[in-house]
């Protein structure tokens, strides 16, 4: 996985395609501007004043877009933090549920059930040979599910059997694997969409914008970048979980 900061990636994409070359002299010099006027007016001082006024207005627009890019990156950062915290809370709740209903009680319950007999059992086992030790271990494992059976409760919590815990863990692993495959497919689709959008931004780079195109492109870019960042982050978390 790439270690590039997704927020910096968003900032770079928006700056590269919405700012340069957006200044008026970069795509329309003063000499080219005068060609829009009849020959008798091209040397008029008002033409130069008009050009400077347009240049100033366009620079103000560029500055506004630049500030909006910074604001958008900050909003994205806040959203990512909120989503990360929400997912962390969900994972903690799921882990607490598993621990409270299964693994934790199996461990603590097993200690209580075998607690007083453990010392005596260990002392007796030390006197036996390796074959009897293995046989005793097999019998203890086979009786664990009977001692801590389904539906048995202690302290208001239901204990899960070893088989139920293994089934739950297996289902969780299969779910993560399926989610990872889905996210990988979404990432591939998003990459193709980003490439298509980048191919259609040539007019933006050279200042030839149709009515409402800039707003539409900016909105689409924000949406695609946000979805891509979320999908990549979830894919990375899925890998770490496995």
Automatic annotation (TrEMBL):
Region forming the signal peptide: none
Transmembrane segments: none
Pfam family, one: Cnl2_NKP2
An annotated GO BP: chromosome segregation
InterPro entries: Nkp2/Cnl2
Top-level taxon of origin: Eukaryota
UniProt key word NADP: no
Keywords assigned by UniProt, alphabetized: Coiled coil
Gene Ontology cellular-component terms listed: Mis6-Sim4 complex
Coiled-coil spans in chain: 166-193
Region called Disordered, residue ranges: 117-156
Protein name as it appears in the record: Uncharacterized protein
Taxonomic path: Eukaryota, Fungi, Dikarya, Ascomycota, Pezizomycotina
């Amino acid at each position: 996985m790439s270690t590039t900061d997704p927020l910096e990636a968003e900032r770079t994409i928006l700056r590269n395609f919405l700012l340069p070359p957006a200044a008026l002299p970069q795509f329309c010099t003063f000499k080219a501007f005068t060609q829009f006027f009849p020959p008798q007016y091209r040397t008029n001082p008002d033409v130069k004043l008009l050009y400077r006024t347009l240049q100033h207005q366009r620079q103000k627009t560029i500055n506004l877009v630049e500030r909006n890019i910074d604001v958008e990156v900050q909003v994205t950062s806040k959203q990512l933090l909120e989503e990360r915290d929400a997912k962390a809370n969900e994972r903690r709740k799921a882990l607490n549920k598993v621990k409270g209903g299964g693994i934790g009680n199996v461990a603590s319950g097993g200690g209580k059930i075998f607690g007083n007999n453990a010392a005596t059992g260990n002392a007796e086992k030390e006197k036996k040979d390796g074959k009897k030790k293995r046989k005793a271990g097999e019998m203890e494992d086979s009786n664990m599910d009977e001692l801590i059976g389904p539906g048995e409760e202690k302290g208001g919590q239901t204990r899960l059997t070893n088989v139920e815990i293994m089934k739950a863990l297996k289902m969780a692993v299969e779910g993560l694997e399926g989610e990872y495959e889905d996210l990988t497919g979404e990432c591939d689709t998003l990459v193709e969409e980003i490439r298509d959008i980048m191919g259609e931004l040539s007019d933006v780079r050279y200042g030839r914008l149709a009515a409402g195109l800039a707003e539409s492109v900016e909105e689409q870019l924000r949406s695609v970048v946000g979805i891509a960042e979320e999908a990549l982050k979830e894919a990375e978390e899925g890998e770490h979980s496995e």
